[in-house]
Design brief:
Elements: E1 7-9, H1 12-16, H2 20-26, E2 31-36, E3 39-52, H3 70-73, E4 79-84, E5 88-95, E6 102-113, H4 115-122, H5 134-141, E7 157-162, E8 170-173, E9 190-193
Antiparallel strand pairs: 1-7, 2-3, 2-7, 3-6, 3-9, 4-5, 5-6, 8-9
Helix pairs in contact: 4-5
The structure holds a DNA duplex (12 and 12 nucleotides).
Length: about 210
DNA sequence: TCTAAGATGGGT
DNA sequence: CCCATCTTAGAA
């Protein structure tokens, strides 16, 4: 069985750091927990992408401070959840200090706790069909836009570090689906756990 | 007001 | 390849 005391909830200071690319890398191998509707689920993060509001055309907050992006301009340590294509709820981790609009998109994970509940939510059986992709991951974990701005150091959504974590091999790639961002689409800001079967899209070329 | 496009996913 | 589905941002 899984011993919850193995995992240490990441403190707010983890999210307040200024290097969003480093944070995206650091999040690989961490475990995303949700306790929503009385259902505990957890999944190990295997794929992330960094978005930087100040110099990254792919970021929603780039040269834009609107109702939607205001979440990213807030202080780090909260969720930024938005609806994509009218269907998918994409979960991001807001980082950095107030007025610095950075976030990390959690793109894929490996189910650990609450797999049966994820199967019910997803109406799929195979473990790789539960949390491999930013939209489906949110569905499996019960995350929707109602959790936009929710704290990541609270009792509904949080991220834990394995106290016994050994060194991980990380692959780097360009981000998915941001071709509109011109040369920023080529930034090496996507991180994956090497050899994981749970990443959403296989490695392309930088 | 109006409209195009989008950090996707599933099916053909 | 196609399409579901709807909010957002920016234009008019």
């Amino acid at each position: 069985m899984f011993d919850l005391t193995t995992y240490e909830k990441l403190p707010k200071s983890f999210y307040l750091r200024s290097d969003v690319v480093q944070i995206a890398k650091d999040l690989i191998g961490k475990v995303l927990f949700t306790n929503i509707g009385g259902i505990l689920t957890a999944a190990k993060i295997v794929e992330t992408e960094a978005y930087c509001g100040r110099n990254d055309r792919a970021c929603h907050a780039f040269e834009r401070r609107t109702k939607r992006t205001e979440t990213m301009y807030g202080e780090g340590g909260v969720a930024y959840v938005y609806l994509c294509y009218g269907i998918h709820h994409l979960f991001n981790v807001v980082t950095n200090m107030h007025d610095h609009a950075d976030a990390v998109l959690i793109r894929a994970a490996e189910p650990i706790i609450g797999i049966e509940q994820m199967q019910l939510r997803r109406k799929k059986q195979k473990p790789t069909q539960l949390t491999s992709g930013p939209g489906v991951l949110s569905q499996a974990l019960g995350i929707s836009t109602t959790y936009n701005e929710a704290s990541l150091v609270g009792e509904e959504i949080w991220i834990g570090a394995d106290r016994n974590q050994i060194r991980l091999e990380i692959e780097i790639d360009r981000r998915v689906g941001v071709d509109y961002a011109g040369e920023d689409a080529l930034l090496p800001w996507r991180f994956m756990l090497r050899e994981s079967e749970y990443v959403s899209v296989k490695k392309r070329n930088l």
